[in-house]
């Protein structure tokens, strides 16, 4: 780019020189300027002509250099293209490279967000492991980290046909079991699945769970496979239930405070009545004593 600008500058300068020579000749011819002798005029013309010739030669040399550099650049480009073709040929082709890169990126997103089932992600990872591209410098570090993240996903959630409630169980405790969700905060998932009906229950034991705090031994609960949507639902429902109970407790405490106030008021009234009766009895006793013994004042 710099070379082209320099070339243009030289061409422009040569044009300017040629133009000035022409102008000087015209001015001298038209105005017949007697201040410059013919010899001086010819000398100046010769100088500009020589300068033009010199610059024209330089432009020609630069053009040769440009052509040589262009030829070298084209040769290097061809070498790079051949090296790139040989490189992709050695690893199975550019399409294979791009496909591995795309699948690796997709699986990284799935594992990061724990989308779907872990076993599906493990299958995708096994497919990547079958390709030699896992050792490629562009992917080796990412492939290793992906394997570590996949292991850290946690144990597979086995979905039993049902869980039988035993004495001392609660939905929070059941959800926290390793064979269930390994996360007690997922208790709303169990409640949502069994609210309108459990798998089975003994005679005279409720077959629905309207209140998550009330489950009974012998009830067989449905345990759905945990998904990202169910996780979000569980968190939202747990927060709603917590707010509901908080308001309920506040109302209960407020009602208890009012009852205590009424009890205290009754006690105060009763105490006042007792105090008034005692004062009246004391006055009556004084009056009676005076009647019995007029000498007492």
What's the short story on this structure?
The protein contains 8 helices and 2 strands.
Explain what this protein looks like in three dimensions.
With 297 residues, this protein is an all-alpha fold. It folds into three domains: 2-90; 94-151; 163-226, Membrane-bound Lytic Murein Transglycosylase D, Chain A. The protein is 69% helix and 1% strand. It has helices spanning 2-31, 38-90, 94-113, 118-129, 140-151, 171-175, 187-194, 228-292; strands at 163-164, 220-221. A two-stranded antiparallel ribbon has the order 1-2. Helix 1 (2-31) packs antiparallel against helix 2 (38-90), helix 3 (94-113) packs antiparallel against helix 4 (118-129) and helix 3 packs parallel to helix 5 (140-151). The longest helix is centred in the last third of the chain and has 65 residues, at 228-292. The termini are far apart.
SS field, number of helical segments? 8
Beta-strand fraction estimate: under 5%
Going across the biggest sheet, name each strand in turn: 1-2
Shape: elongated
Helix content: 55-70%
Number of domains as seen in the coordinates? 3
**Uncertain stretches:** none
What is the strand tally? Answer: 2
Structural class: mainly alpha
* N-to-C span: 131 Å
Order of helices and strands: HHHHHEHHEH
């Amino acid at each position: 780019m710099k070379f082209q600008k320099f070339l243009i500058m030289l061409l422009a300068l040569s044009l300017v020189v040629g133009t000035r020579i022409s102008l000087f000749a015209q001015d001298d011819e038209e105005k017949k300027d007697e201040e410059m002798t013919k010899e001086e005029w010819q000398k100046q013309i010769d100088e500009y002509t020589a300068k033009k010739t010199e610059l024209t030669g330089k432009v020609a040399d630069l053009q040769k250099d440009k052509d040589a550099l262009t030829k070298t650049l084209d040769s290097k480009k061809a070498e790079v293209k051949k090296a790139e073709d040989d490189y992709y040929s050695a690893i199975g082709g550019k399409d294979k490279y791009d496909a591995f890169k795309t699948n690796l990126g997709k699986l990284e997103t799935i594992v990061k967000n724990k989308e779907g089932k872990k076993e599906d992600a493990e299958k995708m990872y096994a497919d990547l492991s079958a390709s030699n591209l896992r050792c490629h410098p562009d992917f080796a570090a990412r492939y290793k980290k992906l394997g570590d993240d996949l292991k850290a996903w946690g144990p597979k959630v086995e979905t039993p046909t049902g869980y039988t409630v035993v004495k001392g169980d609660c939905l929070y405790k059941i959800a926290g079991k390793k064979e269930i969700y390994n996360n007690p905060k997922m208790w709303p998932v169990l409640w949502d699945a069994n609210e309108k009906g459990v798998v089975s229950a003994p005679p005279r034991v409720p077959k629905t769970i309207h209140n998550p705090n009330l489950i009974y031994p012998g009830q067989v609960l449905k345990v759905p496979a945990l998904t990202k949507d169910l996780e979000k639902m569980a968190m939202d429902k747990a927060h709603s239930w917590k707010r509901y109970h908080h308001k309920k407790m506040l109302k209960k405490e407020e009602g208890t405070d009012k009852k205590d106030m009424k009890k205290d008021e009754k006690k105060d009234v009763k105490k006042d009545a007792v105090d008034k009766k005692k004062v009246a009895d004391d006055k009556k006793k004084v009056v009676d004593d005076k009647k019995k013994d007029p000498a007492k004042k």
